[in-house]
Design a protein that fits this description.
Malonyl-Coenzyme A Acyl Carrier Protein, domain 2, globular, Acyl_Trfase/lysoPLipase, EC 2.3.1.39
């Protein structure tokens, strides 16, 4: 999740694959009352002790999509509640906009006041169950392995790489001047994420992603570094169409506040949600559409003038992705933080207070 204002931006960017056994333990030890309350609420909503799986594992159980997604979302909200209740960080008065990467979009909507935690968590759990079923179904149908692979290249080559990938996938008219014209489009592979100026993520059949990489290197003039992500499911691809169908129906029975206390940026449009119907449509489409994270960060940085970014959730993935685009943010009142370790909370709060004072002095 990411929450931002013109000097601050709070980012809760966490999505698939950042879960780990014990990720709540340090928070419970440091802030037992607030953390325990959120975990108890999570268990009550879900109807089983997910908190035990988060605390003790095993990894094989936590890594199941139907467990990992609600777990990551709940821990993001847990950290948000600690900021609010233990440190008096008032989201409504100190944040201008929220943003979340993939799964993190749900916690961003909770932070922004669009969705209640309980209803958002229920959506995430059932949506994850549908996604897990989609993966099992297609693996049984085609006998292939599925997942996600990040492609990393030099920033100057990203647009060319993305264009070539689209051509090999048959997503636009061919434009290469080589033998690739005669090759059929590669099926069951999609561009799941455009994360930064040098990284995209492919989703789908791992064998077909390998085929795509061979064609990129032999015929496309690109040689990106490929990194297999911690996911056995092809998220943000057409395989997940049933999850979109589930969301379209389920979200009609959820209380949505619109307008809420601040704008929230859509993964699909890379712009603020425009209406309640727009939110329902884009949040449903997010299951199969590309996460336009790079476009979202550029929009906030270049067009809305965001200078302070606060990432909330397990790990520092969000801070790192933001930092790739906005750099060190030397402007007074600016900065990029990751709120992911209770031992760093006091220092982070002091830094945030300082940047707010600098922002006022410089305005």
């Amino acid at each position: 999740m990411t929450i931002c204002n013109h000097q601050p931006s709070l980012t809760s960017v966490v999505g698939h694959g950042v879960q780990r056994v014990g990720m709540a333990n340090a928070w419970v030890d440091s802030f037992p009352r607030t953390a325990g309350r959120v975990l108890d609420e999570m268990d009550t909503i879900l109807g089983f002790k997910l908190s035990n799986i988060i605390a003790d594992g095993p990894n094989s159980k936590l890594n199941r999509t139907e467990n990992s997604q609600p777990a990551v979302m709940a821990i993001s909200v847990l950290i948000l509640r600690i900021l609010e209740h233990e440190f008096g960080f008032d989201i409504k008065s100190r944040v201008d906009v929220t943003l979340g990467h993939s799964l993190g979009e749900f916690s961003a909507l909770v932070a922004g006041g669009y969705l209640r935690f309980g209803e958002a968590l229920g959506l995430v759990r059932r949506r994850a169950e549908v996604m897990a079923h989609c993966t099992r179904h297609i693996a049984e149908k085609f006998g292939e392995s599925y997942g996600m692979v990040a492609l990393i290249c030099e920033p100057a080559h990203l647009e060319g790489l993305l264009g070539t990938v689209h051509e090999f996938l048959g997503l636009r008219a061919p434009g290469l001047d080589d033998a690739s014209h005669t090759m059929p489009p590669i099926q069951q592979v999609m561009v799941a994420n455009i994360n930064s100026k040098n990284q995209i993520v492919l989703s789908g059949s791992l064998e077909r992603i390998k085929t795509l990489l061979v064609q990129l290197r032999q015929f496309g003039g690109h040689d990106p570094r490929a990194v297999r992500l911690k996911s056995d499911s092809p998220f943000h691809s057409s395989v997940m169409a049933p999850a979109t169908g589930y969301m379209r129906n389920a979200i009609e029975n959820v209380n949505i506040t619109f307008p809420a206390s601040m704008p929230c940026i859509s993964n699909v449009s890379a712009l603020p949600f425009q209406s309640k119907e727009d939110l329902k449509n884009l949040l449903s489409r997010q299951c199969i559409d590309t996460v336009r994270w790079w476009d979202s960060i550029r929009y906030l940085h270049q067009e809305r003038g965001v200078r302070r970014w606060i990432g909330i959730g397990p790990g520092k993935v969000g801070r790192n992705l933001v930092g790739k685009e906005v750099g060190r943010v030397n402007t007074k009142g600016g900065g990029v933080w990751a709120v992911c370790d209770p031992r760093e909370m006091q220092d982070i709060m002091v830094a945030l207070e300082k940047t707010e004072e600098e922002s006022i002095d410089g305005s």
